[in-house]
């Protein structure tokens, strides 16, 4: 190799050494002090510094400034132990009148629409409370003559007041099985002859099948059997019964322990914290701590009117 070729080889190697450090420079991590520094060209305004003695509390910020509950929500925690359960359905009453042991009993039926409301206090798996109800009751015209002297009209209004006790005995996924017992006083209404029959106590044995929509809301179907005791007055005593079976549908509403998040721009679906205060992110019927696809697999922006909007949120 002549001198010229050696000289060109050395020059080429020096050029490669000089170029090599530049390889991959665009993929390297930039200098944080030079590249990430943002210069605010707006006019700076000095704000007065508040003394530490008058510093605002963490939770006292708009739009939370007018919040009526303290951060611990003590009154809400107490009310959260109560549930209100309104129910409505269909009932069937089976009448039987037997004057003496030698005569055949007289049987006939009646139907009604029962409506009730129960307020329960919950502790552990048990619930105890009280409630009231009414039933729009009717008997067919031919059957009124069978109980002549006892029933005056084919239509009447039952009213009742009762105590309630129940226990959560079994749960499968989002379904709860709750046997309940109600004991109270039954008022037969103006359709019955008060001079011939006295009102008695009743015992209602039922099972609530509850679909848990959220910790604050449940959908209920409740079949029950009711035993009613009546006393026929007068010299001629009789064995008189009017037990009934009913199926009711309704909901159970629990007072929420947390208020709804007041920020309209916040779409958090679980319980979360703003400025040190905890809020729930969903309406009462929708589960709070759900993952995507649980109970509600379709997002709100694809439902109802939102699906026609370009930007539902």
Structure notes:
The chain is elongated. The longest helix has 17 residues, at 3-19. The chain is built from four helices and 13 strands. Mean pLDDT is 75; it is low at 17-45 and 52-70. It is mainly beta and 313 residues long. The chain folds into two domains: 75-254, Porin (Beta Barrel); 258-313, no CATH class. The strands form three sheets. It has an eight-stranded antiparallel barrel. A two-stranded antiparallel sheet has the order 7-10. It has a two-stranded antiparallel sheet with strand order 12-13.
Which stretches are poorly predicted, pLDDT < 50 over at least 5 residues? Answer: 17-45, 52-70
Count of individual domains:
2
Strand content: 35-45%
Query: What distance separates the N and C termini?
Result: 76 Å
SSE layout:
Elements: H1 3-19, H2 32-35, H3 74-79, E1 82-98, E2 106-123, E3 126-139, H4 141-144, E4 155-167, E5 170-172, E6 175-187, E7 197-198, E8 201-214, E9 217-228, E10 231-232, E11 239-254, E12 272-274, E13 277-279
Antiparallel strand pairs: 1-2, 1-11, 2-3, 3-4, 4-6, 5-6, 6-8, 7-10, 8-9, 9-11, 12-13
List keywords for this structure.
313 residues; mainly beta; Porin; eight-stranded antiparallel beta barrel; 4 helices
